[in-house]
Amino acid sequence: MNKFAVIDTETTWGDAVMSIGIAIAESVTFELIDKRYYILTPFKNHGGMFTSALYVNNIKPDLECPREKAMNNLRRLLAAHDVTSIFAYNATFDYRHLPELRHLDWHDIMKMAAYRQHNPKIPSCAECYGTGRLKRGYGVESVYRMLSGDWTYCEMHNALTDAIDELEIMKLLNHELCRYDLAKIG
Fold this sequence. Notes:
- The protein is an alpha/beta fold.
- The chain has one domain (3-185): 2-Layer Sandwich (Nucleotidyltransferase, domain 5), CATH 3.30.420.
- It has five helices and seven strands.
- The protein has a seven-stranded mixed beta sheet.
- A hairpin with a 5-residue loop joins strand 2 and strand 3.
């Protein structure tokens, strides 16, 4: 595997996907090599917790279109890069919302980032379950801050920026990609 993808979705109040962000990276360096941002019509108009972030910082979608067209474009993009593995933070959420991509191998970044045995930046004073998982503070924002030391970081809840930030979490964890086999879902 030479490349992999990190994906994030944002949903409406009715639980329909209204945006998809994808970051494609090189599998050894984890460097971003391509990205796409899709806003899905008509769902963008249905309202959701993070509707205000759809165009945050003047981010423009690569496509603003119906879901079928966006998914066809996304599948072509993944095929063009020979991507067979998808990564996401709390991947079961995105996996459930993107059945068109279930033929790919899915991995959950959170299953590495939220566990003491996989994240050396979890402080010794942090409360963890017997499994090693943090009891609280294991969302993207908390983990990004912990790993980067940037205590001013705020998650934007824009699907594209979140996918790029989740890729950065993977880079900061500094695990080889094969280690994420422990976090496979689906």
